[in-house]
Amino acid sequence: MKNLFLFVFLLLIGCEQTPKTTISPWVSYDESQLLEKNDAHKSKRMQYRLIQSKISDRNNLWKSIAPQIASFSKEDYEQLKPFILEQNIPTLQNHVTAGTLSYEKLTQWYLYRIVLFENDSLKALNAIISIDPNAVRDARKKDAKRPEKQHLLYGIPILLKDNINAEGLPTTAGAHALKNNLTSDAFIVDRLREKGAVILGKTNLSEWANYLCKGCPNGYSAVGGQTLNPYGIRDFDTGGSSAGSGAAIAANYAAAALGSETSGSILSPSSTHALVGLKPTVGLLSRDGIVPISSTYDTPGPMAKNVIDASILLSAMKGEDPNDPITKGNSLASEPKVTFTKKTFEKLRFGVNKQFLSDSLYKIATLKIKSLGGTLVEFEPESVRLGNFGKVLDADMKIDLKNYLTRFGKSDLLPKSIDDVIRHNSADSLFRMPYSQGRLDGVYASEMSADSLAFYKEGLKKRGVAFFETPMRKHNLDVVLSINNWNAGHAAVAQYPCLTLSMGYSEKGAPKGLTFIARPFEEEKLLEIAALYEQETLLRRLPNGY
Fold this sequence. Notes:
The protein is an alpha/beta fold.
């Protein structure tokens, strides 16, 4: 009898060790013809020199995923697909409550989907840099112990742009110099974990958050390779710098993702991937533990398939951070106050930029707003030059990056200043960054005094605020309507929040975003307005083939 029990036990163990899913090894492909084809692209930003990373072996990514989906089959994936694909977070939670879904299966489904597309050379988006090897284990723990009252983010898999610190995963900013940069959690990641979110992994980005080279492709990093847009691989721009977050969420690799923006880096990739992207007011969310460009203008923000998910993610990150005193007094709420009950735009006044009315999608969007009761006021925008913006970013990055590297770069192998980064890249420019490092050279050369820096910042802010406030005060406007990231620079220097969501697609199928811009700390207004517009238009659609 004892031997029989032993036999059954060993048989069960053997069955458990037989994987339902195995991952075929990734084999690099010859991309020379694809690169040659893109040489003829009319946009310089789409003229790639590399697609696949020369640094990262995708099979190392599969090693993080394989044991986590060994018990998950293709049949499981197909069976759960209707309950997960394109669903918002409240719906996912309802499925968990009903027993149709578990947080473990939800996490496995996303990991399976990542492998499904990222292991296919024809569909791979190069959107993922790393995967948390403990994501499924964490999700299983969430299933085992569900609190009586939980945040809507509890148990939900989230991706992070790879310039945001997360314990257990390198924070590379896409750069070879930081490929071993292991840190503790950023403040906002700690807040996400506190709310019960499952950190699935890190997304690709434009290296150094698009502050490496001038005019180079959006979405390229040495560590992650060239991020591609699922709406038109190698045809449509990904936008930058949160390109991987945009591509990953457009393709449903997670429920939502974090991006970061200095000037357009959330708005741009959200617009080009038919997503909702919210660039909050600088000071609403902590920036501590995020590889910086500028402590003056940087902010993290949510990128999601819909407005409610963006709101949920935003609410989970709020909180006063002693290491980023700019949040003091501005981040007290832990839950969204947004009710999403608005049925009309009556009593709301929308500023319509006359220079954008030649865009047919913008024109249609404004008419839709009018049909919902909104008052449209056309205005001719002020001519505002932001000529010193680059100089300010150079000066800020020289200071702020060194502060980050000093605080988080514990290893002697990591750079300690912009000088170290440039020397590191110069040692093998093709291998590490084949597009030169013109922006980093500008950071290195910056010698702006503190007084001059403060003077330029003050001037930029005045001009940025005037750009919006001149029409807003004159016409008593609630929001200004823009396109994609076309006014991102003005909003950056003014420190005004922006929200973009799909307003349709070009004749060739490229997504385009309608962008709402409001006064500082009016995120709730933006979310309410966007929610009604989204509800009445439902313009987002899945990329073909995904």
